[in-house]
Amino acid sequence: MKNIIKVTFFILIASIITAQTIKYPVTKKIDHTDNYHGTIVADPYRWLEDPNSDETKKWVDEQNKITFEYLEKIPFRDKIKNRLTELWNYERYSAPSKVGDYYVYSKNDGLQEQSVVYIQKGLDGEPEVFIDPNKFSNDGSISLAGLSFSKDHKFASYMISRGGSDWREIFVMDVSSKKLLNDHLKWSKFGGMTWYKDGFYYNRYEEPKPGEELKQSNEFQKLYYHKLGTDQSQDVLIWEDKENPRRLFGAGITEDERFLIINVSQGSSSFNGVMYKDLKNNSEIKWLFDKFDSRYSIIDNIGNDFLVLTNLDAPNGKIILVNPSKPEKENWVTVIPESKNVIQGVSVLDEKLFITYLKDANSKVSVFDLNGKYLYDVELPTIGTVSGFGGERKDTITFYTFTSFTYPPTIFKYDVKNNKSEIFRKSDVKFEMTDYETKQIFYESKDGTKVPMFVVHKKGLKLDGNNPALLYAYGGFNISMQPSFSVARIPLLENNVVYAMACLRGGSEYGEEWHKAGMLDKKQNVFDDFIAAAEWLIKNKYTSPEKLAIQGGSNGGLLIGAVVNQRPELFKVAFPQVGVMDMLRFHKFTIGWAWVSEYGSSDNPEQFKFLYAYSPLHNIKKRNNYPATLVTTADHDDRVVPAHSFKYIATLQENNIGNNPTLIRIETKVGHGAGTSTSKTIELNADMWSFMFFNMGITPKH
Prior knowledge:
The strands form nine sheets. The protein has an eight-stranded mixed beta sheet, with helices on both faces. Strands 3, 4, 5, 6 and 7 form a five-stranded antiparallel beta sheet that branches. By secondary structure, the protein is an alpha+beta fold. It is globular. The longest helix is centred in the N-terminal third of the chain and has 19 residues, at 54-72. Strand 17 and strand 18 form a beta hairpin. Helix 3 crosses helix 11. It is built from eleven helices and 39 strands.
């Protein structure tokens, strides 16, 4: 009788808060249209692009009020939040980095809002707090966003982000005393700090107009050198490009400090150029690669020559040796030829090349001598993802972190000379790995392309179509989706949810050709791949349309918005997070112009056609079968400005005539995701999983 009462109560609550009973805020419509090459496009919610207007602020408050009133009525919301809080409360470490005689690493005791940086002498020394970002603010909204040490290890510069914004402020401290110097730099963005002698290189923009900091287009980045003890106004301009306002510059120094390397990128394109300066001879800055026809990454120099990773004529990557006095292609020497696996990263340790490959979206590490002779592979615990192998060329000890879906991040100490790994630190998360299994399957997309997908679930799962499932993907910008552990997913797995992650075209899982197959006019391939993944899960009875949720962030948020428009009947719940939703105007804000190489631009008549054909905002129609949708964004997101999500949800609420709720959750003092405090991260995940279970009619047991 008790169970019958509980089920009846749940059904009653669910029936009360449906889309039909939710009174959405009335979103004003204005008479605004744009003419795109003869096509008139209405933009009635253009006014929501101004985050500083009183009208927009009022609208945000009203939307949040409706959303949180809905979430607060979910009877098990607190239960999920409490479980997540319990799971999150374990010590988490980063792999240590060697800084002279010291090691530096970060640690979170469990529920600290931000991880703390520690320093210790040797591996057996007593750890001391070096930087505690929790002291930057009372609410954890200011995060550490970068840390770099001078060559003599006497000074450290670090960056902070306020409220998750991409804007960075730079401070400098004395390592031994841990006291801050007077140096304070502002308006840096999309770059780091590279030390040389008694200062460092960094990039910055001109100060934006007041009130436009989170919206204004970021153009004319410049590279500067800052000398310790001087005011930012005295910094030396190293490089600028007055003819190409949308180029980005990043500085690096070879380990022997002989060469300054300037990486020049044109937005988010995987193609770039490289310049260099011989610091030993104080030469002029010269181009090494100036055609922007491929990706070039300087690994280090070997004497006068550069060791370079490139994918020119090698979509999966190769390593070459280039003489800067004869940089032409015909003079290159191939050290490591292209293989069937994609090169992800390269480091030099003990005069050996450590190459991390991507094989079917899993990590593989191979070691070669500097002449390209294969030596051996590094044995990894299982199928999964590895990161690390950092250090200097003389180092014989390094560290790497290994993780997989059911393998919490584990730090290994690695003996380079003997090719031996030993566990250095193991996560003590409250999770029984052996209760779950991971499969990698390959399914067929619409055009016959084989696409890999990982499927994770409890052992003994019944394939009867009744399991709840969450399908996640990204599909763009040459970014690979690889196995990784997430504490946030544990409440899903514990409650018999099938977690699936599809490795769509547009990523780097199979090199540049895989990337190109999902960009520009081929973007529809990405959506077809995702839809085919959902259909495979349903056909193979892992789940059903009534139990399938989908999730993606940023470019992945665009993905979710697009597939919901194209196949709404496939999904029960949708989470478009910080998504690029207005494909006709994305390039008008902050760094959005940098994505034109990936997406195209509505300024181009031919590109406008395919952008308009899938743009999430512009393809919403009046329907009664939109999934239950919870859009998430944040007020300090200056990567994908929240106007994308604002205009999208206003249009969706206007056109959704079914019973499923269409809500937006707008976080404060948070940006695109990086640096978000622990408590806000837990709250967001608790709200999403509660929303998901509730709209599937499931009461979680754990």
